[in-house]
């Protein structure tokens, strides 16, 4: 360990010490004023921005501190990271993932291997090479060769074949050789199936991590006690299957669990449920032991029918011919649709997962209702996850929680903020709308102050979290959304709250100005750059269309001065489109010029500036489309004697620029229309 890293953390990062390491590292970064670039409260500015150099220096220092505090294995995951934030996330994902646990086991195996070498010598000992033939057969799934060898060396069944003390059954299970495992289990004594390797894993543990349901079936049929054996991490095969998201194996193992197993291992049931939720495997139904009954219902819920019980309770006979016909027709429809549109399969999977997760939350709340009668205990149990749900916008959880326990609307977090205040602070519009629906959820607690003396208006005045800001394109529209939130809460709060000060001595309006001063500067710059670019385009169109008005295609008659093709339909289109292009481009340029000369006050970003930009972009698009129509009509006039594919192709090419402009600017235009003229936060 280098002397530099010793000044930051006690030990370099490995798979074993992430929890301790990340606490020490975070404290160090906070103390050095570098944490803001890691948690992205200080976002990366554009390269040309004056603040970019300062951000780059802080990012480099934070990234260097993280990298030198990593062990060799962990450093390989962050050596190419460009930012401290990316490196921090990469390490968290690596250490907390199922693959991280697998690699941790590998590290343990390597450590054990080294100890064995010290005892047995560098060749690994005669015992490790004696059964090489059986090892290769198990690795490759060659049952004939394995059977021939076992007939000659019966002791090989329970022998460790490699430096990690894996038996032939371990190796075959690890490499997914199902038929080999089935045949080997038939001739293996039941007690030998419980043989553990150097990390105390049985072959069933390895099946749970990456094997098949059939492997688990044949093993448990021979030795039911395998279900209860724990490895060096204290994990049973059931829990291992949950950690590695092996739904088929998990459903089978859970079906073999007895009521006594569930009642004696409640912690395992909780751990299984947590891992299933993390892996989004809502198809497996885990039911906890019920203190009010002597049996626990266990079943595997079909992912294709996530609300089967609800349908039955609504009066549809589960086994009626009509019900079966509807189910078959529905399944056939989706199967055909998935063949025609493959991407619809993912859409359907996400929809089913959403229904299943909602049903899971309902079942959990029903259990809490039956098992806990003390309101204070309920608040302590459900309050913290409710705050998290409000913070991340999980409106279904909030809705179900308040349905069962309406008093949770007033539950305070560590900063004494209720869920309405948390939703406002984190700009969770769906949660806010649900709570504000019909005004039924507005309570006095909503207007209380937090530990920093902030009322709900102060919270609305704070800058939105980075992930919420970045969901809106352009700094000007981000500021517009922030203003809309502030004005919406201002309408909701009593007038006296507008002048109340927080612990910093700031009113909500002053706090808003302080928090958003950088965003206002960025919004002004974004508006000016956009307006300047569009002004140039509008000016070019005006120039061309003005010249085209006096240079008519085909020329004019010398005696009368009238256009030669004045009676042609194409000429009429030319005149109208030229005039329309000129007038719309002029309107567009005037709008953009008014943007360039605006005062850029906070309130201007709410409606005035976005309205001007909308009109300017709309007129610019119309002028481009009209200009292309002018060009197309000119082609028809010039090629009047060759009416055919050539003139049609040339005229059709005029559609390309207008379409391209619309395609590139349409998302921005739609966002501006939606935020400016769409439904507000209260609608």
From TrEMBL:
Coiled-coil residue spans: none
Top-rank taxon, per record: Eukaryota
SMART domains cross-referenced by the UniProt entry: ANK
ANK repeat ranges per the UniProt record: 233-265
Domain PGG intervals: 525-637
Pfam families in UniProt: Ank_2, PGG, Retrotran_gag_2
Residue stretches spanning the membrane: 530-550, 571-593, 613-639, 646-670
Protein name, entry field: PGG domain-containing protein
């Amino acid at each position: 360990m280098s002397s530099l890293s010793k000044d930051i953390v006690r030990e370099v990062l490995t798979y074993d010490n992430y929890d301790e390491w990340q606490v020490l590292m975070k404290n160090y970064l906070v103390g050095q004023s570098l944490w803001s670039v890691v948690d992205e409260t200080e976002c990366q500015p554009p390269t040309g921005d004056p603040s970019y150099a300062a951000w780059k220096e802080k990012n480099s220092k934070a990234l260097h501190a993280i990298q030198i505090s990593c062990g060799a294995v962990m450093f390989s995951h962050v050596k190419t990271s460009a930012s401290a934030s990316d490196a921090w996330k990469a390490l968290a994902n690596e250490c907390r993932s199922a693959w991280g646990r697998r690699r941790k086991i590998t590290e343990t195996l390597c450590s054990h291997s080294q100890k064995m070498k010290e005892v047995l010598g560098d060749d690994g000992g005669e015992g490790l090479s004696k059964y090489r033939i059986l090892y290769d057969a198990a690795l490759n799934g060659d049952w004939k060769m394995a059977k021939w060898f076992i007939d000659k060396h019966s002791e090989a069944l329970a022998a460790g074949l490699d430096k990690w003390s894996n038996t032939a059954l371990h190796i075959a299970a690890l490499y997914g050789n199902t038929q080999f495992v089935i045949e080997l289990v038939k001739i293996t004594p039941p007690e030998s199936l419980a043989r553990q390797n150097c990390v105390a894993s049985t072959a069933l543990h390895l099946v749970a991590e990456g094997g098949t349901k059939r492997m688990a079936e044949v093993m448990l049929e021979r030795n039911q006690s395998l279900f209860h054996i724990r490895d060096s991490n204290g994990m049973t095969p059931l829990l291992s299957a949950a950690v590695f998201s092996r739904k088929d194996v998990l459903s089978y193992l859970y079906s073999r669990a007895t009521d006594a197993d569930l009642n004696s291992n409640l912690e395992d049931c909780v751990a299984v449920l947590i891992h299933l939720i993390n892996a989004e495997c809502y198809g497996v139904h885990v039911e906890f032991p019920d203190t009010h009954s002597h049996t626990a219902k266990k079943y595997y819920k079909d992912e294709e029918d996530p609300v089967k019980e609800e349908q039955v309770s609504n009066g549809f006979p589960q086994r009626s011919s009509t019900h079966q016909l509807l189910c078959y027709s529905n399944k056939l429809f989706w199967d055909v649709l998935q063949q025609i549109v493959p991407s619809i399969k993912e859409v359907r999977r996400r929809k089913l997962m959403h229904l299943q997760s909602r049903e899971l939350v309902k079942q959990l709340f029903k259990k809490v209702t039956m098992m806990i009668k003390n309101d204070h205990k309920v608040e302590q149990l459900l309050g913290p996850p409710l705050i998290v749900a409000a913070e991340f916008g999980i409106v279904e959880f909030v809705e179900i929680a308040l349905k069962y326990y309406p008093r949770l609307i007033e539950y305070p977090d560590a900063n004494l903020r209720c869920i309405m205040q948390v939703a406002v602070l984190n700009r969770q519009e769906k949660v806010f709308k649900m709570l504000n629906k019909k005004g039924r959820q507005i309570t006095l607690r909503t207007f209380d102050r937090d530990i920093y003396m902030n009322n709900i208006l102060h919270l609305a005045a704070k800058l939105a979290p980075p992930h919420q800001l970045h969901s809106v394109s352009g700094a000007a529209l981000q500021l517009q959304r922030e203003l809309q939130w502030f004005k919406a809460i201002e309408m909701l709060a009593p007038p006296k709250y507008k002048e109340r000060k927080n612990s910093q001595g700031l009113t909500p309006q002053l706090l808003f100005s302080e928090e958003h001063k950088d965003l206002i500067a960025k919004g002004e710059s974004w508006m000016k750059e956009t307006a300047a670019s569009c002004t140039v385009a509008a000016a070019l169109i005006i120039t061309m269309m003005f010249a085209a008005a006096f240079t008519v295609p085909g020329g004019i008659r010398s005696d009368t001065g009238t256009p030669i093709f004045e009676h042609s339909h194409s000429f009429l289109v030319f005149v109208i489109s030229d005039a329309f292009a000129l007038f719309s481009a002029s309107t567009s340029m005037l709008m953009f010029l008014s943007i360039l000369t605006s005062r850029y006050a906070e309130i201007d970003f709410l409606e005035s500036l976005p309205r001007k930009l909308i009109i300017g972009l709309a007129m610019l698009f119309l002028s481009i489309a009209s200009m292309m129509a002018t060009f197309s009509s000119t082609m028809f006039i010039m090629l009047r004697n060759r009416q055919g594919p050539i003139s049609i192709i040339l005229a059709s090419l005029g559609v390309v620029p207008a379409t391209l402009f619309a395609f590139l600017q349409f998302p921005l235009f739609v966002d501006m229309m939606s935020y400016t003229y769409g439904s507000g936060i209260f609608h």
